[in-house]
Amino acid sequence: MERYVIHVTKECNMKCTYCYEKDKVSTYTWNEVEKLIDNLVKHNKEKRFGIEFLGGEPLLAFDLIEKSVEYMEAIPNVEVDSYGITTNGTIVPEGFVDFMKKYPKVFWAASMDGTKDMNQLRIMDIKQNSYDTVIENFKLLARELGGVNRLSIHLVTHPYNVHKLSLGIDHLYKIGFRSMGIGTVESTIIIDDDYCKHYIEQLKIVSDKIKNGEYSNLYIDVLNNLKPRSDTRYYIKDESGKIIAESYGRAKEDITSAQIYKAQAVSSPISSKIEDIREAVYSYHQSNVGKSYAI
């Protein structure tokens, strides 16, 4: 199933050391987003897809997210499987909790890299490690929503923290997280062979602990799902060249081939290396314990 990423702002309240985003100033209007949604729906043949909201920090434009979900939920004969908000986790806007209560298909995914020490490259505008704020907001949302089923954490790994990955996962599990994604810095820090070795070793440790029953109900994306090598990420740009959306290239006939916007295929110089290490840990986990419980 295709998943479209809708950009709602490029502004951000953080200055992460490894940030790859070059555009840090663009903003978006409701007219732009509404037009994009209409075209996504019109040109998606199956009329079923997932939506992710991205920035910058998308919750700085919470009004656009709220309008988008309300708008899409009212479109007849269209099924949005889920709405994901990829956030730095430091902002809970007024009305956000009520919004999540109203729309149970909305999921919150905060980027935070493990322990406070592992998270040192994620710095807020006020020169402060974002760790404490993210954990505080996670606990607030878990309490207000009555559980963690729609809350997840995304750990970005790089050569300076990957050797502590299993420790970071253990730490976050004990805090209460049960759904975790593992990412890799691709363009702003060099990913070498030592990184790859530590990545595989650390996730094998986690897989073994899952097998031994130490992590009940823990879902880790790279252990349970293998992203197809055939996925081709596309940037969807408007006339000025501003990125307004992304896709994974899974739909054969959709907005990326409709010639309404400019669709640019995006590749990473280390994509094969990342695919190799993800395949290694996925294969190990599947042969070790099979799929663990996914919330």
Summarize the structure.
With 295 residues, this protein is α/β, with parallel strands linked by helices. It has helices spanning 30-43, 62-73, 96-102, 131-145, 165-175, 193-211, 221-224, 271-288, and strands at residues 3-7, 48-54, 79-87, 106-111, 151-157, 179-184, 219-220, 233-237, 243-247, 262-266.
Q: Please, could you describe this protein's structure?
A:
The longest helix is centred in the last third of the chain and has 19 residues, at 193-211. The protein has helices spanning 30-43, 62-73, 96-102, 131-145, 165-175, 193-211, 221-224, 271-288; strands at 3-7, 48-54, 79-87, 106-111, 151-157, 179-184, 219-220, 233-237, 243-247, 262-266. It has 295 residues and is α/β, with parallel strands linked by helices. The protein has a ten-stranded mixed β-sheet. The radius of gyration is 19 Å and the shape is globular. It is built from eight helices and ten strands. Helix 6 packs parallel to helix 8.
H and E order: EHEHEHEHEHEHEHEEEH
Task: Report the biggest beta sheet as strand number plus sense, adding barrel if it closes.
Answer: 10 strands, mixed
How far is the first residue's CA from the last residue's CA? 19 Å
**Number of contiguous helices:** 8
Uncertain runs are none
Helix content: 25-40%
- Percentage of residues in strands: 15-25%
The residue-averaged pLDDT reads 95
How many beta-strand elements? 10
**Strand arrangement across the biggest beta sheet:** 7-6-5-4-3-2-1-9-8-10
The coarse overall form would be globular
SS class: alpha/beta
Radius of gyration: 19 Å
